[in-house]
Each structure stands twice: as structure tokens, then as C-alpha cells.
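Quick entry between incubations.
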Amino acid sequence: MSDTAVADTRRLNSKPQDLTDAYGPPSNFLEIDIFNPQTVGVGRARFTTYEVRMRTNLPIFKLKESCVRRRYSDFEWLKNELERDSKIVVPPLPGKALKRQLPFRGDEGIFEESFIEERRQGLEQFINKIAGHPLAQNERCLHMFLQEEAIDRNYVPGKVHALASHCVSGCAAAKLPVVSLPST
Amino acid sequence: MSFFGFGQSVDVDILLNDADSRRRAEHKTEDGKKDKYFLFYDGETVSGKVSLALKNPNKRLEHQGIKVEFIGQIELYYDRGNHHEFVSLVKDLARPGEVTQSQAFDFEFTHVEKPYESYTGQNVKLRYFLRATISRRLNDVVKEMDIVVHTLSTYPELNSSIKMEVGIEDCLHIEFEYNKSKYHLKDVIVGKIYFLLVRIKIKHMEIDIIKRETTGTGPNVYHENDTIAKYEIMDGAPVRGESIPIRLFLAGYELTPTMRDINKKFSVRYYLNLVLIDDEERRYFKQQEVVLWRKGDIVRKSMSHQAAIASQRFEGTTPLGEARTPGPLSDSGNRQCSEKMDKTTTEESAGMDETFALQRRKCA
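Done. Structure below.
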């Protein structure tokens, strides 16, 4: 039996790529920024909120742009909901910093600028990791967290299904318009 | 039983008649070392001499019989006491008596069946050897000589390509294609990955060759997975419509032929594992079995006549059946869920890394 000296290693034929696919925007655009921390309230009742701005072209998200304000306990709520309802391994949140909440500290405690910045970074990593997770993307709690003005803690947990049509911000079904930044 | 034990008075050696012309092949020993052994094929005759050299020429050696055996056996490491002999031939060389001077005894095992390839693995070993035994009242003198057996196949008649669309609903849809389903050990895997939908942020893609050694039967089946190769085929984020080529040369890796249900004791199977990794280190994979077979070398003049016949013998591997397995493919241990995804942990995932099996979408 004769042996071919060299194996045929030519590439398999493939369809040429459509130019709009090659040069158009990718279908996986998803960016969430956490910025503009603001401390509200006075004295013991103070807390810090962060702006959570999302931009995306993923069809699973109703709004292609959204902007909401959230505080640390809202992130904790989201983490708990996902740990209970979804199958994902939920990434860790930046620390609760209980020590910083004790009295008689030399610094501003949890309102210290450097701490807030550290926390902001941790929250940004956390939310980006979750929002990009295929198994978390259809959880109602995530959509509510990112795209509804307020979190309704009495909501009914469940799954979201992608809309058939692409909906840019301001679609009729949403009674949740893009929230504008409050002026300081 | 002693091998050149305490106060041994005789040196025993086994010599093959065609030692000068017979090829040797490298084979790994249990402790990972590589040694060379005489190479035989199914059907070849094993002939030679057992030579006895008396250490003290004046001292006679009394014995209860001298014999030589040709043995093929399977040894499971967790059950060392039980050797499963699937070939056992014996030739008596001398009746009980005395050996007064150094001498050699000829033997020949004609056209010996050697149905399986020699294999040394993680939990099981299949070996062939000659064993010469001088029986004595207190302790026998034994000498063993291992040989290596290769099983050869020829180009399979049916060798369809493997082509499948898989993915995670609404997140990632790809179509992968491998040019064949059966590859010989020096072959090249030529294929491509075509992206239909990319809604996740992929960082890179690799293809791994996984060897799975399965031992045991029934409820005591044990799989040992070993990643033989990891080969990156794409670095960066693909978009819809892109086609990534695969060209993987098998000759560079330590591979054996696919061995299925050998003597009902063990199997060695190979899988191509296509893995996509996203920017959060989540892994998406599709495993596909490929059959590996050993091609006979070009017949050389120096090979014995029988070896020449053996290498040309049209002994195909057992029929594979469908190259594509029907239905959603899942590894053993997968959690089947009605959700759009199947999440499983494999040897690949370590710690917090999440791993997802790509499900079959439709027949391509």
C-alpha cells in the first residue's frame, strides 16, 4: 500500500466574512461604569451612593443605556438574590469594612476618600463580572438592579427573556426612563 | 520465586533468533522511563533460545523441569494480585533432571496471536513477555523478557468529517468542523471554527487532546483523564462570520491507538476538547471523541516476512458507528438541566473558574 509522503494540511473552505460583520460594532458590547460617589444624609444617617451607568447592545437588556444610583447594601441585595436563584458562582464584593464604622477613628471611616475609591473599584469589577455572565443575564434581579430606578425588594424573582425586537432607551413598555444625574 | 536471588548458581538468558534484524520500539515503563523492546505484530512467530550458564562449571544443577512461556496479560494497579492472562502458551524444554554444563534450549511459538497493543497507563498495564522457568524444590529460577506489540490498522473505509453547531442559547453559537473522525498517530487534524453569534467577550480559544483511561466494570468504573496537549488556536476577540483554522500535528504528542473495552478490562479513548475562554476566565467547551489508529510503516526489506504480512493485513479497528453522537452531548457527571445551559466542572476548572458545556444546536 503506497503511503502519501505528506498529509494534506490545506485549510478547510470557509465562507467569506460579510464586511458589515467584520467592521461593524461587535455584538458583545457591554460596559458598566461605577462613578460619581456621593454621600447623602447627615451624621449617623449618612450613606454613599454610586452612579451605575450601563451601555450595551445585548438584546437581553431592555434599555441600551441606563443610569441609576445604588448604595453598597443594594449590591449586597443583588449578591444574595443571585446566590439563591442563579446557578452562578457569585464573585466577592469589596469588604463591608465594619471596623471603619466604629467610633473614635482618626479618619472619616467609611466616608474616607481613599476607601470610597477602593470600594468603587471593587463594585465595578463585581458588577461587570456578573452582567457578562451568560447564566446571570436573564435574572430579573440583575435587570432591576441595573435598569430600574428603585429596587423593589418585594419583587417576584424570575427570569427575563430577550425581546424579539431591539429596543433603544425609552421604549414604550418601560415606565423606567433613563434616570438623569441629580445636579449637585 | 527469585530473580538471580540469593546464592543463584545459574545465569538464565532469553535470546531471540532474529534479534539482529528485528526492530525495537520505545515503550514507557510504569515509572515513566522509556526503554526499547523488541517489536512484534499479531501473528508473528516468536522463536529463540533459553540459555543456561552455570556459574560454577563443576557444580551440577538439579531441577524439576525447565519451561518457557509466552504470556500476554492485563494488570490493574488496584488489583495487583490478579493478573488477567489473555494469551498463555508454554513449551517444555527439559524434563526433571540435571544440567551438567552450560547449554541452550531452542523454542518456537508459531504464529502467536497478539490481539491487543502493549499499553502502560495510569491504572492499568497490558504487557507481553517471555518467561523461562527452572523449577526447583526450594525456589525456582525465573527470567522474564518483555516485548512490545503494536496493533496496526489500515485507512478506514468510512472516515467522515465531524461537523456540528453548538453553543449557549443567545450567547455563543459556533460551528466546528474536523476533517476526519479517525486519525492515525502521525496524522494532522485539520479543521475550523466558524462563529455564528458572539455575545460574550472571548479572550482566546484553544484545542486540547484529552486521553481518558477507563478501568473497572459496572458500578466500579473509574476514569482517568489526562490532557496530552493544549494548543492555542486563537488569541483575541472574534466576531460573527469569522473562521478560525485548526491545524494540529499529532506526531509531536505521546499517543496510543484508541483501545476499546480491551478484554472487558479497560479502555483508552481520545477526545478533542475545544475551549473558549472569556475575559472573566469563564470557560466554554465542547468535547468530541476521535478515534486514533496506528498505521503500518512502509514495508522495508529488513523486516521479517511475517512482519511484512502483518503490516499489510487489512485489519480495521472495530467499526465506530456514527461519528456524531445524537442528542445533546454531555460528559458523565454533567448535571442535565432544562435551562439553556449545562454547567459542569471538569478537570479543567480550578477554584472559582466556571466551565460550561456547549450544547448541540442542530445537525449541521
